Amino acid sequence: xxxxxxxxxxxxxxxxxxxxxxxxxxxxxxxxxxxxxxxxxxxxxxxxxxxxxxxxxxxxxxxxxxxxxxxxxxxxxxxxxxxxxxxxxxxxxxxxxxxxxxxxxxxxxxxxxxxxxxxxxxxx
Length: 124
Known about the structure:
By secondary structure, this protein is mostly beta strands. It is built from no helices and 11 strands.
């Protein structure tokens, strides 16, 4: 079983930057694909970014491409999301997820473990 805990969410002004972290415990996630998703109030959870197990391949939603960077540290058993040039529409609860298998995935059903989420609010 894998437990995931996100941190780093806060209130930030539009145009600013924020870094999210996801700490994994229970077992190593070095052989797991991982990803970030977000859910805005009243909307469904949507894909943000994903990374394969060794960090060599990444994939982003069009809405964040060029502004967000996903990375991981398999020694620390952690996942990260660096968010730059933030916009009010980036406001959401951000979730970390891990999937059995080394490949990445851009759909929520492909993930087996989820964190509780961290709130990111971008003010205009």
